Amino acid sequence: MKTNPVRSSQQVGLGDLLEPQPRQAASPAVESIEEFKTLLLSLQDARGRGEPELVRAQSLPARPARYGELAEPLPRALAHVLDAQGIGRLYSHQAEAIDRARAGKHVVVATGTASGKSLGYHIPVLERLLLEREATALYLFPTKALAQDQLRGLHRFADASRELALALATGTYDGDTPAPARRKLRERGNAILTNPDMLHQGILPYHARWSRFLSNLRFVVVDEVHTYRGIFGSHVANVLRRLRRIARHYGAEPQFLLSSATVRNPQELAEILVGDDVHIVDNDGSPRGPKLFVLWNPRTFGPDSPERRSASVDAERILVALMKRGVQSIVFTKARVVAELIYRYARERLERESRGLADLLSPYRGGYLPEERRAIERRLFDGELRGVISTNALELGIDVGSLDASILVGFPNTIASTWQQAGRSGRKQAPSLAVVVAYEDPVDQYLMRHPSYFFGQSPENAVLDPENPYVLASQLSCAAYELPLREEDEAVFGRRATAIAELLEEEGSFKSLDGLRYWSSAEYPAGKVNLRTISDDTFTILDQTRENAVLGTVDSISAPELLYPEAIYLHEGDTYFVRDLDLKQKIAYVEPRGVDYYTQPVLDTHLKLEETRESKKLGGETIGLGPAAVSWATVAMKKIRFRSLDAIGYHPLDLPRQKLDTVALWIQPGEGTRNQVKIAGMNPREGMSGLRNLLITILPLHVMCDRPDIGGILDSANLGEPTIFIYDRYPGGLGYAERGYAIIGELLSASLRLVEDCPCELGCPSCVGLPVLRPAQQQDPDLYGGWPIPSKAATVALLRRMLGR
Amino acid sequence: MISSTLRQRIGEMLRGEAAAGRAGTTLDPAVRRPREQRIVPTSIEDILPGGMLIGREGAVFVHERLYTELNERPTPLLKKYEQIGRLPDPDEAPVPHTLPEAIEALDPPERGLFRKFGHRRMLFLDIETCGLQSQPVFLVGLCHVGERNLVLRQLFARDYAEERSLIAEVERVLGEHDFLVTYNGKTFDLPFLRHRAVYHRLRFETRIPHLDLLWMVRRRWKDRLPDCRLKTLEWRVLRRLRAGDIDGSEIPGAYHEYVKHGQPHRLLPVFHHNLLDVVAMVELLPRLFEPEEER
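Output (structure tokens, whole complex):
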């Protein structure tokens, strides 16, 4: 199979950047959502047995545009820029955001995908840069790719107005920026695009070099704030407090302009991040064509067979049919390997059936080289690509224009992500389609059986806790290194700050002099504090047959799951054989090899309780707390034939284990309790699975973290009896298990309330059924049934006994 | 990363909070550990002769020594310094006829500083800091030429707060001289001081001409030396061996310890190290203006 031709960035002419609007077909390929429905019905397997695939087709009504007027007109240059981009009038939410920002308020815009959120912050920033020569603005994006994307946006603005081009000195400042460009930006830049990690390690500790920029800092733009949740969000909130403090030191009080995708509580999230009141703009004025939202369940092999066909193969059939009909489509997958597989299948079919379209399809995921990704984004934006198969890498706001259809392979793990991905399709007037193709996984199947459940759920709350004492200890160290802490500062960092600062002083990291706390250690604290749970270390993949040319990259956590020796690594649909994985140098050596199979890692995870630091009795049960090591490794690989999914080989592997040293709390129901559940005719172990899942839902609400920040395991090996372990997914722990231990009675009562109040009959994803238990990120969900939803009755019975009710 | 003791103390704090049944107030006194018995700190003044200099921004400790006190004879050195500015003006020198002659006749452009200002108007400077960037500077070694002697002066901030007066004093002293001599000061010392002044929101607008010996050393000896560190020059050119010098990486820790716990004896090697650096510059400079020996 031939790789897609991609243009490197050097070949892009100025014309590409000047093109302001995505190309739109003169008339839509599909004129009504009824046509989408007919098309999908025709794709059902008429001869197949079992229930038909199309479970539900919900139509979401169209929405007309609502426009707004600015209280004060825009400067001429900006008005001209908007005209040049074909923006005649502002939507009501854009006008409101701009008015509020001009009035000096912190503003968060929380409107739908592709509603023009970024205009809401670009306009006030650019206006200020035009009016005030010295003014500066800092833009924060969660990824380097998004910063690049918005830089292109800023350049398009500047290209349309000479006056603006003269006033604007912009660029991205991140790990990829060469030293001379960094220096130039520090000395002369007035709109700098970066990420929180760089701000934390590369800007704030060196603030004296940034004194010009910081003393004139008028705006801080924080895009995609919904990504700042859990541990990452808790750190970022503190980094922003540090930024405000340093800016204040240089006499600046910047205004924050934020944007958020779907979450239940955007305003609260923004206010916690900024540490101040934030005005919310969420009245979306952008127009939407009608949308058809379809739930699609692949057929079972027979009326009695529980097994279903591959979700990847069904998604590929839908994609190809839509492309042939002229519908520009995006497929979202939950794992990189799935994006590669669907691409491979779809391309094979298109080469047979519709040659011209085969080159208009591309996969997209993390791990491709940046210039390849930029080229794909551009081809999508220009309307040249008619289909793209992506991981959630395209869920974030990279501007690829609007598409006609999105196909979600498997339910994303949150309602918020589902709407976000579904929202990637949908133009201003034309009808659009979103299809969720279910896996044979209990959660997916539950949603297929109860379609109204999904449509009735609101998106999740974004939770974060800047006052987490462990996060705070790290962040206060960084802050004191930058500038001694005053008493007022300690208030900025929350009610625990003084107590933590005292502990840091006792430990010798701080020294108080005249009411100021100074950093008093030879260490460089920011160098040791990672904002994200997963390190951003990467492995490089080299092609040995092309003089070790770089093929792509992969994060260090996934590397041992994707690139073990003899694995087949899929890249743009092509198969590469992994010759060697050098864990020290962080390099994988591969060579292209045509094979008819792909490989899947077999993972082994276990938890080892290092010691019981504390334990207590709760009725007949034992509750404990102690340091634990969670480790995992790829212990074997399976060879799977393409399409048929037949397992054709199994090889044990010997790779070093990856390890996380953390803190775990454990719950060990007494033998009496387990027997009582047994006597009632239920399986106590199932009840424990249910309770483990409930705790992963409940604990985050009490300790203010995100669900993926904690993990849970059921195990008998450590203590000789079945035990539930709940642990922090962060090196050293962040106090979640610790706090859970202290309030265990409350957690169990809350779990019982939740499961009893849940209207479901046997158990559902809202109560005992949820969790997404890592680590299996790199696996093809088609091959794994997922965890069964444990019995609700057993869980209730267990909890009742434990609580003596 | 957080140390294990701190982690443990935070754990105690959290359990204290949970026991008190309220999520997070300040530290429960019952949980707080009694403070360690404090060692009564001795200060640097007790072991180093010197005095306080009171300036616009506050006080700073000054330790002063003469070159003669180091058992060195200043006269031959000062003679060499006088020579630097006195060499014939290049315009009056014979016109070179060949390329090697032309190179030979090339005058180090730095000589102009001596011609213009004379060696009595120069100031040597070397700083000691708590890190390579954005951390306090606490010791500044200076040297100027006095009557028949060289005056070595070390300005010292006894705690982080005194850094402010230290920088203000350095700025003032720079203003009293006509040109500055450093080793790598164009890249390190001066930008560092400037950034610290910005940090303290102090004026630091010196435009003093600056002779950075490192640049001259590179031009002259780069190919013949393993590296251009001052210590290497000291041995290879001045034939002086430094014994018992503190490792540069230990300097920040020694200062932090002093601020926290007193114990000035641990700082003495830092003062010594700084003094030797300044002396090395003072002695190296004339050699850079001498004609090459081994041609």
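Chain A has 28 helices and 30 strands.
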